[in-house]
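Q&A log
Question type: sequence-to-structure
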Amino acid sequence: MTTVGSDSGKIVLITGASRGIGFEAARLFAAEGHSVILSARDRQRGLSAVDALKAEDLPGSVHFLHLDVTDAASIAGAVEEVTEKFGKLDVLVNNAAILRDHYVKASEVAPDTLDQTLATNVTAVHAMIGAFLPLLRASGQARVINLASGAGQLTWMFDKVWAPAYQISKAGVNAVTRIWATELQPDGIPVNSVCPGWCRTEMGGEEADRSPEEGTSGILWLANEAPATVTGKFFRDQEELDW
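Response status: OK
Response body:
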């Protein structure tokens, strides 16, 4: 695990953090003095992201973790690395996602596209929570934050279909959130979904109406300020959304 900076604050693992919302979240957590585990499937992009944060001389630390969230062996290896380095995990941010079906109809989405999208955007979220559960329980203050999207809101979706597989997957993320929130209530581990909004990232494009920092604010709030009793809910910024 490649490390930049000094370890302090909370231990925060962010998946898919070499770019976009994940990268911005890593920067902001490190700016607050936390120890950030920046994970990415692409090793070179991940290392480049760590170098970029190193150049900012942030008070927290940033550690690169090579992780493919769709690969069980990769997840198991990541658990071993985090266990050896930290022995616990305070915040798990399930951010990694793919968008493969931009501006198409449901009838144009191949089953393989849906399978691939669900594997990264939904199944991996479930797998990550389960695999890191012992480390989350070891924290005593753990929180799980799943990146969902307003595009996956069932109340909003009718007549607003623009990426069917992606939208189905984000509705699935919210289901994963509700189910895990139920199981982890006795542990005092809140599990919530957050929508960053339409942000100017590689996925969102330059025409988006929110900056990555604005999109990340809800993640930071759930990690640092939201009451631990708030669980099984869906937020944009600090406002609860309908499912």
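Response note: The chain has a mean pLDDT of 93.
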